Amino acid sequence: MSNDPKVLVALDFDNYDQVMALVEQLDPSKCRLKVGKELFTLFGPQIVKALVAKDFQIFLDLKFHDIPNTVAKAVTAAAELGVWMVNVHASGGAKMMSAAAEALKPYGDKAPLLIGVTMLTSMVEEELSQLNVSKSANEHVLSLATLAKESGLDGVVCSAKEAVMLKQALGHEFLLVTPGIRPAGTDRGDQQRVMTPAEAVTAGSDYLVIGRPITQSEQPIAVLDAINQTI
Ligand SMILES: O=c1ccn([C@@H]2O[C@H](COP(=O)(O)O)[C@@H](O)[C@H]2O)c(=O)[nH]1
């Protein structure tokens, strides 16, 4: 299997034994793991260290959004944990993102990839007006992603629906990390801007964040293997 697996399994669990039981069945050559707000708030840096010690590459998805000094310190703490990828909200602005990028420079090629969150995949275009954003979803995502690139970030979190546009505008090297991935026939849950794994990769997604379709399945490994076959 690939040494650059595209699937990032979102470990959204509230039970340590359950998450570890799943992790024991997973193979670092077939997927990376995402630790988000639920798991981190419950089990803290220790669980990240435990997963790193099992040779998994970890996306620490805490979506930092704060003043530049605080975010710079937070991404430094993430780098010290040995994570592979960390993210900040692009709407925190250029100063905040640049401070995060600067803070990671001393880590050189050991620095985690720094990714900006654009528009959550649970949102539809109509919700932007509630935030006084008068752009279309595509325009809003493009403007946040452009700012992220100009601020020195490695890529963005977006929907795969925006992947073709972003690759054209920002180039192939700028990474696209896409949640809102749903294999055909599976429940969307609260996700709105969705694509199947194969559609997402064809559109230009570099990494697919997939949680419930794998973690809530009775046969998570079979689901992951089936997804990997299609991409
Ligand atoms: O725009 C975003 C940003 C982050 N997420 C996270 O990805 C996973 C998706 O899980 P599913 O169960 O596959 O829906 C989840 O941890 C979110 O916090 C996102 O969905 N959209």
UniProtKB/TrEMBL annotation:
CDD domains: OMP_decarboxylase_like. It catalyses: orotidine 5'-phosphate + H(+) = UMP + CO2. Residues 6-227 form the Orotidine 5'-phosphate decarboxylase domain. The active site is at D61, K63, D66. Pathway: Pyrimidine metabolism; UMP biosynthesis via de novo pathway; UMP from orotate: step 2/2. Substrate binds at residues 12, 34, 61-70, 121, 182, 191, 211-212. PROSITE patterns: OMPDECASE (PS00156). Its EC number is 4.1.1.23. GO terms for cellular component: cytosol. It holds the Pfam family OMPdecase. HAMAP family: OMPdecase_type1_B. Catalyzes the decarboxylation of orotidine 5'-monophosphate (OMP) to uridine 5'-monophosphate (UMP). Homodimer. Belongs to the OMP decarboxylase family. Type 1 subfamily. PANTHER family: OROTIDINE 5'-PHOSPHATE DECARBOXYLASE. This is Orotidine 5'-phosphate decarboxylase. It comes from Ferrimonas lipolytica.
